[in-house]
Amino acid sequence: MLKVLRPAMTRALTPLGRVLARAGVTPNMITVVGTLGVVASALALYPAGQLWWGSVLITVFVLFDLLDGVLARQTGRTGPFGAFLDSTMDRLADAAIFSGLLLYFVSREEDLLAGLSLFCLVGGALVSYARARAEGLGMTCTVGLAERAERLVVILVAAGFSGLGVPYILAAGLWLLSAASAVTVAQRFAAVYRQAVPPKISDRAEER
């Protein structure tokens, strides 16, 4: 859904990518710094109740995920290790965001929302793992209602506006994200099943 915005954001970050490339900064450096920034912001500010500033800082560091790709193209340093590092750091960043929210709700004794945060953490990991495992088996698995970009937008907007005092928005965001993650996992299971299980002979005959 948000893929249409990626080219425009990439163009906006290209000048900064050129500057960093001339300074000798590598894409892997950007990936690691961005992830550490997300982890530190989420685990320091969310449990302390600083939902607005936590969301603002996390959003800034999440943009590093686009910047490392821009820098990789500028420097020609694209390769399997960079892709592996990027995907692995994404999982760490996502876990930190929902862990921060989980600690926030536990401190406020809001058990239901803490449970929803945990569900979103696990659901997001399953969404990503399903795709990675399917592609490792030679299949495609890009379908889904809520990929990582959509999940991040929902939770960061909900947490940020909750920090500004908007009532119920964080709870609504978590419920929405929980449902979207579950649907996406189901969609990816179905997509892989259709590719992995060949149609019966009778079905093939009917198609002809």
TrEMBL record:
Q: Which InterPro entries match?
A: CDP-OH_P_trans (IPR000462), CDP-OH_PTrfase_TM_dom (IPR043130), CDP_ALCOHOL_P_TRANSF_CS (IPR048254), PIP_synthase_PgsA1 (IPR044268)
Topological category with respect to the lipid bilayer: Multi-pass membrane protein
The keyword Metal-binding is assigned to this record? yes
Keywords from UniProt, A to Z, are: Cell membrane, Lipid biosynthesis, Lipid metabolism, Magnesium, Membrane, Metal-binding, Phospholipid biosynthesis, Phospholipid metabolism, Transferase, Transmembrane, Transmembrane helix
| Alphabetized GO MF terms | magnesium ion binding; phosphotransferase activity, for other substituted phosphate groups
What's the EC number here?
Answer: 2.7.8.-
Report the domain of life of the source organism.
Answer: Bacteria
Q: What is its main location?
A: membrane
Record localization: Cell membrane
Q: What pathway, per the record?
A: Lipid metabolism; Phospholipid metabolism; phosphatidylinositol phosphate biosynthesis
Listed under GO cellular component are: plasma membrane
Q: Where does the sequence pass through the membrane?
A: 20-45, 113-132, 152-177
Q: Which residues bind a CDP-1,2-diacyl-sn-glycerol?
A: N28, M29, I30, T31, G69, R73
Q: How is the cofactor bound?
A: Contains a di-nuclear catalytic Mg(2+) center.
Q: What quaternary structure, including any partners, is listed in this protein's UniProt entry?
A: Homodimer.
Family membership, please give it.
Answer: Belongs to the CDP-alcohol phosphatidyltransferase class-I family.
Protein name per the record: Phosphatidylinositol phosphate synthase
Q: Which organism is it from?
A: Bailinhaonella thermotolerans
